[in-house]
Design goal:
- The chain is an alpha/beta fold and 490 residues long.
- 47% of the residues lie in helices and 16% in strands.
- It has a five-stranded mixed sheet, with helices on one face. A five-stranded parallel sheet has the order 10-9-11-12-13, with helices on both faces. Strands 1-3 form a two-stranded antiparallel sheet.
- The chain is globular.
- The two termini are 29 Å apart.
- Bound molecules: adenosine-5'-diphosphate.
């Protein structure tokens, strides 16, 4: 590509007033975009508190029932409370994710999701709320569902929770049905209610933030008008959309449709609790370095149960000494510790043990996120606390190249992580990708364009990745582009 002259380069002296006006316009634009960003942040924070309230209400309700009703099954209530608590945790993670998006690292997860189980969970979560209002809540599976679909599970669950909780809220009598169809890789999930309905003139505006429609009956219900706005954004993030049809006085149908492909052959590694019972080959040694005794205990119990030899240390100095003694295959390393922090420990471990030692950083602070595994970092992978144990096990498996042994009957489950676009590129791609990143980070569009072409020219296998990057560059979406680079270099 031939680089056009930069308009800011070598401006003639007489052009100063024009340059001044341009600088002023630049500043005005910068201020406007800062203000817009601020407003978006405020809206987001309000949205988050709204989102946290629904699962908290479920927890609160069940806790009170447990206090009053001795006949209520503790196990059943416990499961529902745990699921709701998981939902809150997920939301907090979502919040942290937004800050990652803002810093240019957007990741849309491609979990392998058991769609039927997910829908059933959502129905279970709301069963009590529905029956308290005398409503029937049913799950209606209309097509044969694949065992697993690829989707961002948290976002998908959040969409369903928002729609079902609305259906119950705006339905005084009758029923709410969660109907699911699945054809040609497209999931069609409808939440159908026999509620107050939505007047035709409100059908579009109810998706606007803070809009609660024009019906007094709707406005009498608690709410702040953010659920549908969030739902629509989430649905679009998943590559789908939400639409509504309604007959005032008779009910509404909210329909979420998205392509949720089912993997051709369900993968073999972990993804489901309790399925993995061990691994093939010699016993591997894990060293957990964490100042939190509870975390050490959990990891010891989890990994010990799978046949790993587990050692633990409570701080960095002790951890380095233990590593020298026991020669672990993998270290799970907390970042925030008194004394040496995790990054410093990782550097020293890497210097002492070389690349054969796998180092996984574990942190409660998602801001500390660095993907690792790029050959430059002293760590190989990063997970955030609270640690999802299934994911951690899968990660340990990938890092050590393990073949898992599964309990009978063998049920296929999720792989540790899907291949990101650009996975499997040869090592020569690394400096070219770094070059694309450098230009993108400073917003030098023409530099990015040139670097993408260099990448595509030199590495034929990077063709697909280059196409994605070109499209994102065409949209001037440098944040998304940086996210793609992160995924590709993970
Ligand atoms: P909130 O429920 O907090 O008001 P939402 O964004 O979830 O916020 O919904 C916006 C508006 O859309 C509601 O105030 C209500 O008027 C209308 N609405 C949403 N879901 C339904 C439904 N299932 N039946 C009737 N009206 C609904």
């Amino acid at each position: 590509m031939t680089a056009a002259a930069d308009p800011f380069d070598g401006a003639p002296l007489g052009a100063e007033p024009a340059a001044h006006a341009r600088a002023l316009a630049e500043l005005r634009r910068a201020r406007e975009s800062a203000e817009a960003a601020n407003e978006a942040k405020t809206r987001y924070l309000v949205a988050v508190s709204h989102e946290i309230r629904s699962p908290l209400n479920v927890i609160y309700g069940y806790a009170q029932l447990l206090e009053r009703d001795e006949s209520l099954s503790g196990a059943e209530a416990g499961t529902i409370i745990r699921r709701s608590a998981e939902h809150v945790t997920n939301l907090v993670e979502g919040l942290l994710e937004i800050s990652r998006i803002e810093s240019g690292v957007l990741t849309i997860r491609q979990d392998l999701v058991d769609l039927r189980a997910l829908l059933q969970h959502v129905v279970d979560m709301f069963r009590m709320q529905a029956s308290a209002k005398g409503l029937t809540l049913t799950l209606d599976v209309r097509d044969r569902l694949p065992e697993q679909v690829k989707a961002d599970e948290k976002r998908l669950r959040q969409i369903l929770i928002n729609l079902v909780s609305n259906a119950i809220k705006y339905t005084p009598a009758g029923q709410v049905t969660l109907a699911v169809g699945y054809r040609s890789q497209v999931a069609d999930i409808a939440v159908i209610d026999t509620g107050i309905g939505i007047p035709p003139e409100d059908l579009e505006r109810v998706f606007e933030p803070f809009d609660r429609g024009s019906l007094a009956a709707a406005q009498r219900q608690p709410g702040i008008g953010l659920g549908l706005a969030i739902t629509r954004v989430l649905a679009r993030v998943l590559g789908g959309d939400v639409a509504v049809t309604s007959t005032p006085g008779a009910g509404s149908t909210f329909r979420f449709r998205a392509m949720l492909p089912s993997p051709a052959t369900p993968a073999r590694a972990s993804g489901r609790r309790g399925r993995i019972i061990g691994y093939e080959g010699p016993r591997r040694t894990v060293l957990v370095i964490d100042d939190d005794p509870a975390q050490r205990h959990i990891l010891r119990a989890l990994l010990g149960g799978l046949g790993f030899v587990v050692h633990a240390a409570a701080d960095g100095t002790d951890g380095i000494a233990r590593a020298a003694e026991v020669a672990p295959d993998i270290v799970l390393l907390d970042i925030q510790m008194p004394g040496l922090n995790g990054w410093q420990v990782a550097e020293r471990l890497r210097a002492a043990h070389g690349a054969a030692l796998r180092i996984v950083m574990v942190s409660a602070d998602a801001h500390a996120f660095r993907a690792g595994g790029d050959g430059r970092s002293s760590h190989d992978a990063f997970v955030t606390k609270p640690v999802e144990l299934d994911r951690l096990v899968a990660l340990v498996g990938t890092q050590l190249g393990l073949c898992w042994e599964e309990a009978e009957p063998v049920t296929p489950a999720a792989p540790p992580a899907p291949a990101p676009p650009g996975a499997g590129l040869p090592p020569e791609a690394a400096p070219l990708l770094a070059c694309v990143r450098e230009f993108a980070e400073v917003g030098h569009v023409r530099g990015v364009e040139r670097a993408i072409e260099d990448l595509a020219g030199a590495i034929p296998a990077a063709g697909a990745l280059a196409a994605v990057l070109r499209r994102q560059l065409g949209d001037f979406d440098l944040r998304a582009l940086l996210g793609t680079l992160d995924d590709a270099t993970r």
